[in-house]
Amino acid sequence: MKLHGENMIGPRRTADGTETYRAVDPATDAELEPTFTDATESEIDAACRSALGASRAYAAVPAQTRAGFLRAIADQIEQLGDELVSRCVTETALPAARIVSERGRTTNQLRMFASLVEEGSWVDARIERPDAGRKPLPKPDMRRMLVPIGPVAVFGASNFPLAFSVAGGDTASALAAGNPVVVKAHPSHPGTSEMVGEAIVAAARESGMPDGVFSLVHGSSPRVGRSLVLHVAIRAVGFTGSHAAGRALFDAAAARPRPIPVYAEMGSVNPVVVLPGAAAERSQSVAQGLAASVTLGVGQFCTNPGVVFVPAEYAESFGRATADAVAAATGVMLNTRVCSAYTRTVGELRRRHDVSEVSSARDSAAAGAPGAAYAVPAVFGISSRAFVADGGLRVEVFGPATIVVSYDGIGELREAIESLDGQLTGTIHGNLDELAANRDLVDLLGERVGRLIFNGFPTGVEVCDAMNHGGPYPATTDVHFTSVGTAAILRFARPLCYQDFPADGLPEELADANPREILRRIDGEFTRDPV
Amino acid sequence: MKLHGENMIGPRRTADGTETYRAVDPATDAELEPTFTDATESEIDAACRSALGASRAYAAVPAQTRAGFLRAIADQIEQLGDELVSRCVTETALPAARIVSERGRTTNQLRMFASLVEEGSWVDARIERPDAGRKPLPKPDMRRMLVPIGPVAVFGASNFPLAFSVAGGDTASALAAGNPVVVKAHPSHPGTSEMVGEAIVAAARESGMPDGVFSLVHGSSPRVGRSLVLHVAIRAVGFTGSHAAGRALFDAAAARPRPIPVYAEMGSVNPVVVLPGAAAERSQSVAQGLAASVTLGVGQFCTNPGVVFVPAEYAESFGRATADAVAAATGVMLNTRVCSAYTRTVGELRRRHDVSEVSSARDSAAAGAPGAAYAVPAVFGISSRAFVADGGLRVEVFGPATIVVSYDGIGELREAIESLDGQLTGTIHGNLDELAANRDLVDLLGERVGRLIFNGFPTGVEVCDAMNHGGPYPATTDVHFTSVGTAAILRFARPLCYQDFPADGLPEELADANPREILRRIDGEFTRDPV
Fold first, then answer.
1. Cis ω on the peptide bond leading into residue A34 (within 30° of 0)?
2. Strand ranges for A22-109 from DSSP E
3. Is B265 an annotated catalytic residue?
4. Is residue A222 classed as helix, strand or coil in its secondary structure?
5. In this structure, are residues B531 and B517 in contact, taking their beta carbons and an 8 Å threshold?
6. Which residue among A29, A423, B99, B387 is buried most deeply as judged by most CB within 10 Å?
7. How far apart are the C-alpha atoms of B529 and A122, rounded to whole Å?
8. Burial of residue A392, with CB atoms counted within 10 A of its CB: 0-12 exposed, 13-18 middle, 19 or more buried
9. Number of helices (H) and strands (E), helices first, in chain B?
10. B490 neighbourhood in chain A, CB within 8 Å
11. Separation CA A212–CA A437 (nearest Å)
12. Which of A92, A443, A53, A40 has its CA nearest to residue A213?
């Protein structure tokens, strides 16, 4: 498959602009073919108008057909075979096994949303029957369900070139809800993006979807993303990435004449709390598990555990065990930009007088780095008091680093937890007795996170109904929603109520017959029966 | 009951400030006793900190007890008896019968949320059981439910002194979800607000709720509302009122270091479409119904129908019939500010060369107004082409006025609908055949509204599971949510996921036993059974 490097406005390819870029192999610094062309303002406009133009036709596509389209995307991605894996490995330096597994997650997500849409109960149908005899006024016939929100802009994430990029969770859930999607490809893996984009276009064609259901624009310049978010046709935005970029998009969207929601998942420090009993019983095995979680994917996960609270008497040995376990896990990061940021932040920590480095300090050159994006894991130690005193220590370090915070008693631990901002996850290691005895600490942590984990680690985000991959700001810009799992579809739907509509004026989900037997709330009772 | 005019910080009363105001009887312009004192910055801070301080204890209150608290509020409001009705009538000029009926709606809403919380399925519990044998990785135990979002600020609305004020839908749904509430009383009915506030405080005391679960602050100055929205302890805001005020609060909340959601319901023009068949068959009766809807409550409803599209050949007679029917419905508005705004806007319409006045133009003095807030209904006529050409005609006129837009053919009607901004409601009058033949027009209107009504009128908002009182911007600032009906609770809750938690570390709603038999999704199946 020869890459063309062009923007994809529905099935049309265009490259009208003059701003161009190439992908770089982060393992070798080598520039890759071909040249990709940033979308011009008029190409962005064409993509968004094309999405708006397709929105009514796509919303009207029957659920089964929409599910077929999602499955066709999964099939088309699989048909890309090793070529996709190979390009993706070259662009991201992630190992082939990881890419293969991420491809599986991506196609599973698409098929999971296909099943969700086919089953149909996700629309939360609510029906209340009329009562002409009610006093003082007759009760009307009221029916309500979730309908598509309108064209969605999706930003590919650098750290999930498949599962959170062109056909990732945001796109899958937006398409599943019945919305056209305009994706901005992440410039860190544009070739991967183009291949997956072509897979979607092919699936749309074979499934008979309207042309504007999917577009892909390139943007190495922030102008492209900004213009996309500001476009009048766009109704919602899905984003996974840095806090700075996420907040900028959120601010731009909120300041629009007609504000739109931005679902930005911006990562967090994902605190891990080791309670005294767990420390006494299995400090070394917790350290091993933490090290594996910190270095997984060269530390490039939103759920990477960046801070671990350990009782003072165990902190030093815990830190050493963690440092020993991470030492071998050097690796190439996604691109030189994220690696420079990592190296800079680790350097800043290293220079602080209140922070001690537990791992042997080495820079990437000393470690024999084969490329500019080569990162060396780092483990730091600090006192709980110093941690609480400086908010700068509570900011995510994107990469394979973690800080061991030693606490002296539950009071100090409580203060440290209280100092935390919003998080995607919070983890507690403890035995059953101390979990029960410290219920208030669990609640304190629970107020600050989207997911609580007991005796485990936050990486490895299960894609399922019960997942919440979200959390209070700054973990995300909207605490109501998850970006992983079936509930992610709720971001891209809105309620619409039909009052006193005749039977054949209602959507199938709200009509009396209920041929698909979806679960509905009829006069307060949940049932799959017809009205 | 003697009114004190003070702020209520939980059960404490304070009046530290120097900015004061009095309520005014809009029917007579007379100032009423007592003097109310705007909250100072430190009083606002105390109210918000008190709410935050109460939030964990209140979130932990069992559902049955929380339901009892909501019912106790309803009881306490009823115990205020005629005194409440009388003060409310004096402050708002609304008739006693309306206030009595609005009180019924308010107490019904509180009891409806009590039942919802008691039944418990609203938390959308999702459970996925573990699978230690899954390859390549074991599947963890995943459980997720909705939990309280944290302290909520509620702004009382001038046009619903009971049902959307101190103990109205926002407060009821926020308390039901498990959040403390700080209400800013609307300065148009501060005495009513104080009485209802004291009812909530009494209910909180008798139900054993934590002190900070409810506070009430006065604010005749916009400073108070702004400070409330900017307070670090506040996690969400409920607001019903004007576009200018709602947007200002939304902008302030979005610009916070930690942004929070503002659920502002800002009204709309609520278009009514009369299709040719309906016009031919029953133009006069539609005009009668419209007139009643336009003048209900002196036109002071968010769902007041401000624009009606009528086929050109019927427009004139339809307009005349509407004008005749509204002529007698003069009335006193909520306060002189809303009445001046109404009079000014109607005057502007009157002076336009492309707008004709169908009703006999009279100002309030000519109509023998007994007070400054006396409003005279108005009916205007305009061509569809002129309506489409000027966005200024598509802005809500708060008061008893409506514009008859005459359209020449379905093409013109379509253009006019396409020109509309987001709306709370859209209404269609037609016969069954033309509804079926114009499905695309219904979809077009449906994209712009939160509720579609067939052969009815938008006023009279049913409080039920299936209601959606919301809609695309500028009708509201968040298209995902309703502010009326049980689904309003979803604004004030967020998902929290528990991974691999032991049985006794889980909230009751997620534990295996399911003693309250709530509906849960277990491994994808909806069931009330235990795990």
1. yes
2. 24-25, 30-31, 36-37
3. yes
4. helix
5. no
6. A423
7. 20
8. exposed
9. 15, 23
10. 480
11. 56
12. A53
| Alpha carbon distance B43, A319 (integer Å) | 46
Amino acid letter, A172 = A
- Which two structure tokens, joined as six digits, stand for B140? 């963890």
Most distant CA pair in chain A: distance in Å? Answer: 84
Confidence of residue B392 (pLDDT cuts 50, 70, 90): confident
Closest CA to B259 of A37, A255, A204: A255
ipTM: 0.97
The tens digit of pLDDT for each residue in A170-208 reads 999 999 999 999 999 999 999 999 999 999 999 999 999
Residues of A in contact with B498 (CB under 8 A): 451-452, 454
Residues B27 and B93 sit within 8 Å (Cβ to Cβ): yes
Interior angle at CA A51, CA A48 and CA A56, nearest 5: 140
The answer for B409, left when phi > 0, alpha when psi is -120 to 50, beta otherwise, is left
Given a contact cutoff of 8 angstroms between Cβ atoms, the answer to whether B220 and B193 are in contact is no
Question: Is B259 in Cβ contact with A126 (below 8 Å)?
Answer: no
Confidence at A391, pLDDT banded by 50, 70, 90? confident
C-alpha–C-alpha distance, residues B520 and B325, integer Å? 52
| Model confidence pLDDT, tens digit, residues B296-324 | 999 999 999 999 999 999 999 999 999 99
Q: Where are the beta strands (DSSP E) in A165-235?
A: 181-184, 214-217
Query: Residue A506 in contact with residue A531, Cβ under 8 Å?
Result: no
pTM: 0.97
C-alpha of B241 from chain center: 8
Annotated catalytic, A302?
Answer: yes
Helix A63-79 to helix A169-176 angle (10° resolution) is 150
Phi, psi (deg, nearest 5) at residue B339: -70, -40
- Contact by Cβ (8 Å): A221, A245: no
